[in-house]
Design a protein that fits this description.
2 copies of one chain form a homodimer. The first copy, chain A, is mostly helical. Chain A has 2 domains: 97 residues, no CATH class; 351 residues, Neurolysin, domain 3 (Orthogonal Bundle), CATH 1.10.1370. Helices cover 64% and strands 3% of the residues of chain A. In chain A, helix 1 runs antiparallel to helix 2. The termini of chain A are far apart. Chains A and B meet through helix 1, helix 2 and strand 1 of A and helix 1, helix 2 and strand 1 of B.
């Protein structure tokens, strides 16, 4: 057992090194790379990916995993060893299920589709993208079928991002959530709107950067193990347990963008910096799922960063950093301004109250595409009518509607629910944290986050990918992923702000 | 033939990808990496190196190379195909000659030695480093012996950096050069010293950066294929034909440092950006040798950057960038100041007239260590006495003497001559360029470098590693590496400046 486990770990270590090397190349591509380096960078990433795949998907690793899985039957199923083998075997089974020719073909199809999607969006013409999306949907269904038997054809897709989660689970969650969110948004829409005009003045770039960095440090970022850079799109990436980086972008006339994006990415980074050090260079040094990852980013961004308690402490500092813009704006006005709700067409610009509705709209379409209940050609109309149902706004163009997001052109179907699930989990954890730490709000209003970060490390971060997401949430909160805490939070918050 | 060649190229392409990925990781380590990322970065680089080695050193590649070498006997020996196989086979023979256990052992020894060297230097105590250097010398001799038969035990070491070059060649070159350089330095020392006090005023960082970038652009750098960053030590690195990067450091009270280092690294980068595009992802997309590489950097730094012609055009711009510091310094005073000769103890601070003497001192010691004529324990005294002979200065401490350079602690023996050979080659090429382009000096004094860069691309850059260094110099200039042009250049330049 010991010898086989070491052999497996040796190989997994090399694969981890290759994946982290790819992450460095990817980071550099988005942060530093001169324009014409793209072609060769693509080749290099291709080679690293191929070598990592070949190290993993081969009979020797398959045999090792089978032997070890048999032998771990005598181990505590919750031991790190048993879980490492379970998680690795799960990845192995998935990676061996799809033939490499199909992966290569899918890469070709999505590369073309991505270009055609960009063209379709810029020309506002869905028909350009339609045949490519049809091909993608067809191939994704074929891939899903490789994972039969399943309860639902969307299950294998969802499972890639949310291990162990079923389509019936998310359907049930979102069927409860959607009408309540629709109702909330309606109530807000009928209330007097708050003022956020002061968030559209000019906020100098360097001062925005400095304030964001100071907040990230307060949250617990340690620049000996991290750094922040500029990139076109904010993201978090890991090169190991001790080098986890974030990026941001700054718009001078939209200060909320960089500020909350830095908080968001800091939440992601603190998660990855908190994995058990014994998991280094193994598949356990990863997030439990994208929803759990998102629960961390959304917690720091929204539950902390858009709270009255937080700004009680930090607003005077923000006013000092931007006296011209904010000296005449009081705390309460500022707090309402950063929490303004306004149904809009674009997901990435959506506020807390409307965000999940965008996600549910897209997820519903994905599920029906997989079920064969919906055809690609009908998507523009379906999109528009549901947008009106869910959010009360109508998109005039496909560019602002069904074509707005890049994900489908890359073949990513099954990914969207994780955005909304993360919001739900963040509040479940938040309620439990408040039970465990009655002083939490008071500490936040003093700008102190040490106790909160410690709680997250102990209860969430350290476990990495050891537990599946539903299991992890259950272990911590006593219940699986549940929309009720999130609705309580939203209703409470917006009743207070909008006074309905 | 075609099929085998394609098979070889396919493997070489992957190795090239891995090596370029390692280069990205190395660049990031020196430019961006947070402090605690070092351990994991080392593991990642280790894995990438191991995979590249395993892809290359195996019986399949060995057999391919043998077959191809036999088949290319019918080809033009100067064809790219024949040369690719020759250069690759040369690397293969070298990489298979040293057993991997010995490489691993050498890595362990030098890792320890590096730490002990740093300690020895900071405590100014050679005895701390001595046993480690003894072990390194012993191992390097063992490695050299694996390459028997040889004419001289230093040959295999030199050959790693200067393919095809013999110890007898460099001995002959340097035996001619040394007395003439000693004599020149003596003549300068007896002349009236020039003033360079204006190069020790405060020159603001950003203005230094901007001026350096502008010069690099004038030389021919294209930021779509390159970039400059800050690093502790200036260097050039390649991630492919279209992503070659340089770094610099800026001392506000030493403006010559960043200015000439940017010119130097630009020279290296232009070389790597100029390889024949057909050589992409093969071992031919590399420098012919370190001396040829250095000939490019020294040409732009010294022959161009420290010339009167260059500053005739650019000095007014420099004065505009730094009016407080330079408005009262005329062109001639500036020109003499940047060419001040002053024998000193430290190689990296040496000027053009004394630099080679530092190199020859160390190379002489290396050769005698290999011959067994010198023992490690005697190095401090030997260093001091030769320093006095060669440069007329005596080092009071070992830290400023035998311990000053890092190279030996990393096991790099055979590397130093390349620094001096590069200087010699730069002037040989320079003379040929002047024959081919009578307007060269006039163009430089107009700030025009297009013709010069084109000449270098056509005659030097495009060939990459196709020709061995002596062969390349012979093809271009009609003679092998020769110290006479360099001495002509030095004597002419310094007689003019120092008036002896």
């Amino acid at each position: 057992m010991e010898e086989k486990l070491n052999k497996l770990k040796h190989t997994l270590g090399k694969i981890s090194d290759l994946n982290h090397a790819s992450a460095v190349l990817g980071w550099d591509q988005q942060v530093s790379m001169p324009e014409l380096g793209a072609l060769e960078r693509g080749e290099q990433l291709g080679t690293l990916g191929e070598l990592a795949h070949n190290l993993f998907v081969n009979d020797e690793v398959g045999q090792l995993l089978e032997d070890l899985a048999a032998e771990t039957k005598n181990l505590d199923p919750d031991s790190d060893e048993a879980r490492l083998i379970k998680v690795t075997k799960r990845q192995y089974d998935r990676d061996t299920r799809i033939p490499s020719e199909m992966i290569a073909e899918f890469a070709r199809v999505t590369t073309v589709a991505h270009g055609e999607w960009a063209k379709a969006r810029s020309q506002n013409q869905f028909s350009i993208f339609q045949p490519h999306l049809e091909k993608i949907v067809e191939m994704v269904r074929e891939m899903a079928d490789l994972f039969k038997p399943y309860d639902h054809p969307y299950d294998p897709l969802l499972d890639m991002f949310e291990p162990g989660m079923k389509t019936s689970d998310v359907k049930q969650i979102f069927d409860t959530l959607r009408p309540q969110q629709v109702e909330l948004v309606k109530a807000i829409s009928e209330s007097k709107q708050v003022d956020d005009s002061f968030l559209h003045l000019n906020f100098p770039k360097q001062a925005q950067w400095d304030f964001g960095v100071a907040i990230a440090e307060k949250f617990g970022m340690n620049w000996e193990r991290s750094r922040q850079d500029y990139a076109a799109h904010p993201f978090t990436t890991s090169f190991g347990l001790d080098d986890v980086r974030i990026t941001t972008r700054i718009h001078e006339d939209l200060p909320a963008s960089a500020l909350f994006s830095t908080m968001h990415e800091t939440g992601h980074a603190l998660y990855e910096l908190g994995f058990n050090r014994d998991y280094r260079r193994t598949p356990l040094a990863d997030s439990a799922s994208l929803a759990i990852h998102e629960s961390q980013s959304r917690m720091w961004e929204n539950l902390v960063g858009r709270s009255r308690n937080f700004w009680t402490h930090f607003y005077p500092q923000l006013q000092t950093a931007f006296p011209q813009q904010l000296s005449n704006v009081d705390l309460e006005t500022f707090y309402r301004g950063i929490n303004k709700v306004e149904p809009s067409l674009i997901r990435v610009e959506a506020d807390e109250a409307t965000y999940n509705l965008h996600v549910m709209l897209r997820m519903g379409i994905e599920i029906e595409l997989m079920e064969g209940k919906l055809e690609v050609k009908d998507l523009p109309e379906v999109w528009k009518s549901r947008m009106l149902d869910y959010l009360g706004v109508a998109s005039a163009t496909d560019a602002d509607g069904v074509l707005q997001d890049v994900h489908w052109s890359g073949g990513m179907i099954g990914y969207f629910p994780t955005y909304a699930l993360g919001n739900l989990v963040s509040v479940q954890l938040w309620e439990k944290m408040h039970q465990d730490m009655p002083d939490l709000d008071e500490n936040i209003s003093k700008g102190q986050f040490g106790e909160m970060l410690q709680w997250l490390r102990t209860n969430v971060h350290q476990y990495g990918a050891k537990y599946e997401p539903q299991e992890l949430v259950q272990r911590i909160t006593g219940s699986k992923i549940d929309p009720k805490p999130y609705m309580r939070y939203l209703n409470h918050k917006y009743q207070d702000i909008y006074g309905f």
